[in-house]
Amino acid sequence: MSTGGVERVAVVGTGVIGASWAAHFLAHGLDVTATDPGPGAEERLRADVAAHWPVLERLGLAEGASTDRLAFTADAAEAVADADFVQENGPEREDVKHALFAVLDVAARPGVVLASSSSGLLPSVIARGCPRHPERVVIGHPFNPPHLIPLVEVVPGERTSPEAVERAMAFYAAVGKRPIRLRQELPGHVANRLQAALWQEAYSLVERGVATVSDIDTAISQGPGLRWAVLGPFLNQHLSGGPGGIAHVLEHLGPPTERWWRDLGRVTLTPELVQQLVAGVDEELAGTDEADLVARRDAVLDALLAAKADNGLT
To answer: 3-hydroxyacyl-CoA dehydrogenase C-terminal domain: from which residue to which, for each copy (predicted)?
Structure first.
């Protein structure tokens, strides 16, 4: 398998996202050097990778893929010194990112892409921690869990070079991802902004007493969410328009949709609303083993991805 010259990946930060990335890269036959300063980080990482491995085996491992190719060091500079690609997954704080990227900037070879999994920070802001080579900093934002969900949002900053963007796009595609390149940097990128729009109305509906937390989860998971898992919002809308497609939908449903937009709620996460949302989730999960729920979710994702591939919908 060609990965554009990438043989060793450094995974910086091994929490939920970092551990999932590490498992994904290992499954694609790469060497992974991981680093995290937290106590017990190596043990947790190896346990997380082992937990992810069965589903990755079912999806199909690359030749030579092995968990034995995972190395760990608490020293971030050591972890990236021999890396061909760096995937950073540290806390979502500018000061932490700047301190961390200052180390990566010095230790990693100049041509190596430094990709951040940041879910909302701007790459231009993160790159301020890289005075030597800001041109190789990009956002490479995955969706959780990265070892299953194909999407990666690649976002260049003001000083990111086209070559770094192309290397990131090519690498992610080579390891089975579906990268998209953003033409502008925005807080939250694309997918999280779309989610945020839905969350805004969902929270508002709960706050106004229109529906319960459980009702809203059902409305999405048993309704449009099923179609969204197959095709995106534009293609779904197009198919709902019959022979006239999206042009027909926009002509006939556009005006009422605009009225709905003006009626959407705007909310503030007051302590009272937060308590209401948390209580609603607790009620929905009553008697549910959350670890079992995660396993069942991932099994369905596994089956869904296989079904999409079988039907040419990857």
So the answer is: 188-256
Looking at the fold, whether 258 and 289 belong to one and the same domain comes out as yes
| Domain that residue 259 falls in | 191-310
Report the domain count for the chain. Answer: 2
Residues 17 and 142 sit within 8 Å (Cβ to Cβ): yes
Residue 115's φ and ψ, nearest 5 degrees, are -105, 130
**Residue 26 shares a structural domain with residue 165:** yes
Residue 1: inside a domain, yes or no?
no
- Measure the CA dihedral 63/56/300/287, to 10°: 170
* 125 and 259 housed in the same domain: no
Name residue, tokens 């999405």: 220
Best CA proximity match to 305, nearest among 22, 55, 1? 55
Same domain, 51 and 195: no
Per-residue pLDDT of 170-183, as tens digits, reads: 999 999 999 999 99
The answer to whether 172 touches 9, Cβ cutoff 8 Å, is no
Report the alpha-carbon distance of residue 216 to residue 203 in Å, rounded.
9
- Residue 111 is which amino acid? G
Strand, helix or coil at 140? Answer: strand
Q: 193-209 pLDDT, tens per residue? A: 999 999 999 999 999 99
In the three-class reduction of DSSP (H, G, I as helix; E, B as strand; rest coil), residue 138 is classed as strand
Q: What is the pTM of this model?
A: 0.93
DSSP label at 67? Answer: G
Q: Residue 216 belongs to a domain with what CATH number?
A: 1.10.1040.10
